[in-house]
Design goal:
By secondary structure, this protein is an alpha/beta fold. The strands form two sheets. An eight-stranded parallel beta barrel has the order 1-2-4-5-6-7-8-14. Strands 10-9-13-12-11 form a five-stranded antiparallel sheet. Helix 10 packs parallel to helix 11. The longest helix is centred in the N-terminal third of the chain and has 19 residues.
């Protein structure tokens, strides 16, 4: 056999082998799933670990959250969950179940606030050091990218220069990550005024819009958690100011806000609520908050009927009033995503969907999203 023929045979089998291991990862829309690592500490039915994740229902799964240490470097916020209990390592193993799924590390979050990020982003040297450290960190733990969740530039302890500094920080991160094929996404408020939209849209791969908490936990009256009429106006503003529809990922909540009514006989939208809310789910153990599986449990054993309005739901029973998304409202939002050609949907968060199938199929909200966008 000639050297040429042998080379052709070897090349043929190399290509065949590559094709056999390279998965077909095409999908119509992004389905971004946030994993809240602290759900590890919940008890019984509420405990959620990486073992509970179904990687076939997501295109990108995001580990939440890392943060900044005293040197303004990327670091674990909970070494027990992330390292001792194997959170980071176990997360990296998800790709063995679905080679097509991306795994990303989120840095920031509501509890981190803004001040540390404002200081870090204000100086070129600290931006560069953070980006270099972030690259090494996510490479070491096997992540496919970084999701920056600074809540929010210019607010909550930030300064006016944050808007420009945020652009510079993102560009520095992009320059570090992109040569290695690592993605950069951001989680943002619906309020585009915090951001120089046209500039950041040219830098990042995806923009995850946190399209919920329109009515916040400290509201004095009842109101919807994520009404589509409000969301559409906010999305339109992002697009008008320079973001492309295809890079916008619409957030969908898998939790409810709950209130105690001041007068149980007045239970519509805009009804007065008491100042110290005591309602909440037994497993998530947070006043004013129910996971979706706790919503289903509450409805199953109590009075009242769901009211669907503005692609959102509210429900009242005696003095408890809740607002959330169900499968029907989620379907409406997915239709909106398709109609406006957005990039996909983002779920906050995996651990508050009915992941165990306590009241039917597992992951009813996530499954609805995935089938609606990628059936």
């Amino acid at each position: 056999m000639t050297y040429y023929k042998l080379s052709c045979i070897v090349l043929f089998f190399l290509i065949l082998n590559l094709q056999s291991v390279k998965p077909d990862c095409e999908h119509k829309k992004e389905v971004v799933c946030y994993y809240a690592s602290w759900a590890l500490y919940r008890q019984d039915e509420g405990q959620f670990t990486t073992d509970n994740i179904d990687p076939t229902l997501c295109t990108n799964i995001i580990y939440s959250f890392a943060g900044l240490d005293i040197n303004l470097q990327l670091a674990s916020l909970d070494p027990n969950a992330d390292i001792t209990q194997g959170g980071f390592y176990n997360f990296s193993q998800i790709k063995e179940q679905n080679p097509c799924v991306r795994i990303t590390l989120a840095v920031g979050g509501w509890n981190e606030g803004s001040l540390k990020y404002s200081i870090m982003a204000s100086d070129e040297a600290t931006r560069e050091a953070f980006a270099e450290n972030a690259l090494k960190f996510i490479a070491y733990y096997g992540f496919d990218g970084l999701d920056l969740d600074w809540e929010y530039p210019t607010a909550r302890g930030g300064i006016a220069d944050d808007k420009a500094n945020f652009n510079s920080l993102l560009q520095t991160l992009k320059d570090k990550l992109s040569p290695w094929g690592l993605t950069l996404s951001i989680a943002v408020s619906m309020e585009d005024s915090y951001y120089d939209v046209a500039t950041i849209a040219q830098i990042v791969d995806y923009i995850h819009i946190m399209a919920y908490d329109v009515t916040t936990a400290d509201s004095k009256v009842t109101g919807l958690l994520a009404p589509l009429s409000v969301i559409t106006k906010k999305v339109e503003a992002w697009i008008k100011n320079g973001a492309s529809a295809s890079q916008l990922i619409l957030g969908i909540p898998t939790y409810a806000r709950c209130f105690n009514l001041a007068n149980p006989d007045n239970s519509g939208i805009g009804a007065k609520v008491v100042s110290n809310t005591t309602c909440g789910g037994i497993w998530t153990d947070q006043n004013g908050f129910f996971s979706y599986y706790e919503v289903l449990e509450f409805i199953d054993i109590n009075c009242g009927e769901e009211v669907l309005t503005d692609s959102n739901v509210y429900y009242s029973c005696v003095d408890v009033w809740m607002t959330y998304d169900n499968k029907q409202s989620v379907s409406s939002k997915c239709q909106y995503i398709r109609d406006t050609k957005l990039g996909g949907a983002m779920l906050w968060s995996l651990d508050t969907d009915d992941f165990g199938g306590l009241y039917g199929d597992k992951y009813p909200l996530l499954s609805t999203i995935y089938s609606s966008l990628n059936s």
